[in-house]
Protein: Glycoside hydrolase family 38 C-terminal domain-containing protein
Amino acid sequence: MTKKTVHIVPHSHWDREWYFTIEDSNILLIENMDYLIHLLEENPHYYSYVMDGQMSVVEEYLRIRPDNRERLKNLITNKRIFVGPWYTQTDSLLVHKEAVIRNLLYGSRMAEDMGHNMNIGYLPDIFGQNAYLPSMFKGFGLGYSILQRGVYSEQLDNDLHFMWKSPDGESIPTNLMLFGYGPGKFLSADPTYYEEKLQPIVEKLENYNKHTDQILLPSGGDQVLVRDHFPSTIQQLNQQDEDRDYILSDYEHFMEQAWSEEPFDTVIEGELTATEHSRIHQTIRSQRYDIKQLNTNVEHKLLHLLEPIAVMASTLGFRYPQEWLDTMWKDLFDVHAHDSIGGCNSDDTNSDIMIRLRKIDRKADGLLNIIKKQVTQAVANELGEEQILVLFNTMPQVWDGQLTTTIFTKDPAFTITTIKGEPLDSTVLDQEYISGGKKIVVTADGEQEVEIPGYYRSEMLVTVTDMPALGYAAYLIQEGVSSSYRLAAATETVISNSFLQLEWTDKGTISLTNQSTGSTIENLLCFEERADAGDSYDFSPLPGDSPIYLEDGALIDVQRSPEVEKLTVSHTTAVPHTLEERQKQQATTPCTIITTFELRKTENFVRVHHEVTNQAKDHRLRVLLQSPGTPPTTSFADQGFSLVEHAVNNPHLSEWKERGHKEAPVSIHPLESIAGIESDKGTFTVMTKGMKEYEVLDTGQMAFTLFRSVGLLGRDNLTWRPGRASGINNKVVYTPDAQMQQCMTFDYAISFDSSSASPTVLFNRLYQFNEHNASYQKQSLNSFEERLDRFEIPYPVETLNAQYSLLQVHTTSLLSVCKQSYDQDGIILRWFNPLHEPATLSLSNYNQSISVTNLNEKVKEKVDRVTIPPKGYQTIKL
Structure:
């Protein structure tokens, strides 16, 4: 009989932060890495060690131990220590697709610079796998993937090896770590351990490896110190067990050996969120909503504003802020580590995460401020005008539409015009008079206070046409005369545009009508409040609890102008303050939700804004949005570069406990920004900013979690998650900040199409909702709106034209990223095609060479024509 080979892989899974802070982690890291380097150098028989596949630990170590760089590089080059391809172990279902790719880009390039990038898409502990990870790993030239979570036994053909396939058709050889990453953490040759622990684990692994003699036994854990006894322990195991060979190994060697024996035929497609063998924590995506919301805003600012505007400016002679962006992205990768972005941390750690996000946000604002100011000054040099407004368009097509901007003037009446003097349609959304204050003037009679004239701050909605693609256009501000509309109070209870109508009914509910067909959704919106007896990882229903519904509201006001209309309502009820009150059926705490609906003239969706001040504890609040037609069996959501399908009812839910699943397979699904339903009445779609989970109810309602409020990091025996607490055991960690007793805002948009809506249309609407544009007014009245305006900077002496376009693209595909290349020798553009058919693109007003690259931004070939595969993407370098 052929002996089985058991690959013992020593490793440490290094959490950047969790119930401990990042400082705790780094202090421990230095001690452990010192010891690891010394051990491997002194003991050549200690084969290798996997340092969790992330480069952040290397960078942190070398920040404190720079003199050990060559020692560490030598061990990495010789595959004694494995690092990469990640910078941090990111949560792939809670962050932007481009943030996942950027994490791999920094991790892979830094690992290559240190001598070797591990050839494994390593996913030991993240809570569910993004459907596009196989394609992303292939895009970085990785040969294999190893993961822990998300696969059902029925998907496996009696083997833990399978081909994992992305929606674009790319696939990668993959291994499932059935017992997670720590079954060999306490590896020992002690007879009792061998008989009672090791043998049963190895035998079960053999039962799941019918087509290979290679068995993987990951032997590590969280923040563990390298086990120096492993070589001698393995010698003893080989003496005890005549049927198996135990070897010190690594993930690369294991996968090469296993996949060289014969190909594995099983193919598993797409997103992996099964809860049979490992917990997925489906509802962690609504934990600490404030982190999710701010992270979404920061990602948008970096990817869709700062980087493309900096690229435009760099082609005009300004410096691209690469060094700043490097530090900002690395700080963001720390936020994106699976525990961090999940919010399942101590209050100290979550506070650090919010501070980190705010710092990145401020840096992005400052860099945008300077770039916009320099470009605007160069345009002013050309025009010889003082009162100009420059609008930036970061989309690669000429754009017509509405955008928001803020204008400062001495006169409350003003007009925004083109350079030729043609007035733009605009609406004053809000206007306030601001006192100029006083300044100190030194005179012959001493210091005197001098009154500074006041001015007006106006928030504007402006309609523009022919905005240059990936470029800017300048406009003039003429004071003293106004052609702007103003929102005015209306007595009607209806708002509408040419696409949609929203009506407040005499029943205290909202109806939504598609104007082209007359189809109406009655009772569009209500709210569901219920107990949350869970912890920071998982929502858990309280036995015997019934939801409280906020259905009938009160109308606050209706405002209208020819460009935009708004309707504001409130929903109020009393809710239990604590779980104890809820069990006594008491409700003493007010819950009020203020909702504003906004319809802009050019938009085929309604913008929705909620304001909630939460005063209760241990509960969950969801908005329930009624979809049209027959309740569906499936829904869709965006993930990676297309829309993925989700089942409304998980067939495993009826017998998950009997089958011993680790967690209830509830049909609560992740989304990046889009979720929707197709029915016999059309397509109902919701686009969100920071809301990351949804569920389709049997009523056809789409339930989007606004927030969860819990005060414990871990709790035993939840209704949907039996057994031990997740995370740290045997200690109660209270997290009062996670009760979210604060004011919160929520923004999303609803569209209602009469027929099937193309994914391209939906993604374009998302871009319109997110407003891929920025503005800058050259003015001297206010130096606080953009914080760096009050300081001196070196102004350009050059002049720039009143309009500029970097390039214009003709394609049905969408721009995913526009940035400077990692090597700072070109511009990287990535396009994605969410359709089932291939797409092509051509560039206007660009005459230089175009190359196709992989995700690692290494050139594959020069091309004249770019094709984007179905549900795929293509990266080009200019």
